[in-house]
Amino acid sequence: MIQLIIASKSEKQLDDIAEYLLKNHLVISIDFHQNILRKEFENGKINNYAIHYIAGKTKSLLFNEIDLRVRNKYKDNIPEIFSHPIINMDWDLANKLKSEIEKI
């Protein structure tokens, strides 16, 4: 099990991705995090800007498939995609994830 994270400067893009993931049973839910401050060191200075991200619980074996589908749909503006492992999870939530997410 993983927590899938997709970050972008575009809230619209993330909303579209969230709906796609939910409708195709690739995640069990999506949390939106908006206007998160990001700092990056570029060209010798620190730059600040706002990003948005969505987070959803899914099966770790679906990560590559989700990554491929998002990359194919947003070739010109690929969002940042990564995951965190879920080490422990409530059994009811784990069973929901197993039963409601696409079979691999």
Name some characteristics of this structure.
alpha+beta, 3 helices
Structure characterization notes:
There is one protein chain. The chain is an alpha+beta fold and 104 residues long. It has a single domain (2-100), classed as Alpha-Beta Plaits. The protein is 33% helix and 38% strand. It is built from 3 helices and 4 strands. The protein has helices at 11-23, 63-73, 91-100, and strands at residues 2-8, 30-42, 45-58, 80-85. It has a 4-stranded antiparallel β-sheet, covered by helices on one side. Strand 2 (30-42) and strand 3 form a beta hairpin. The chain is globular and about 50 Å long. The model has no long low-confidence stretch (mean pLDDT 93).
Helix and strand arrangement:
Layout: E1 2-8, H1 11-23, E2 30-42, E3 45-58, H2 63-73, E4 80-85, H3 91-100
Antiparallel strand pairs: 1-3, 1-4, 2-3
Which H/E pattern describes the elements? EHEEHEH
Q: Which blocks of ≥5 consecutive residues have pLDDT under 50?
A: none
What oligomeric state do these chains adopt? single chain
Rg to the nearest angstrom? 15 Å
Number of strands: 4
Question: Main β-sheet, in a few words?
Answer: 4 strands, antiparallel
Instruction: Determine the N-to-C terminus distance.
Output: 13 Å
The name of the CATH architecture is 2-Layer Sandwich
Structural class by sheet pairing and helices:
alpha+beta
Principal-axis shape: globular
Domain module count:
1
- pLDDT average, as an integer? 93
The number of helical segments is 3
* Helical content class: 25-40%
Q: And the CATH topology?
A: Alpha-Beta Plaits
Trace the largest sheet across and list its strands: 2-3-1-4
Strand content: 35-45%
Assign the CATH class.
Alpha Beta
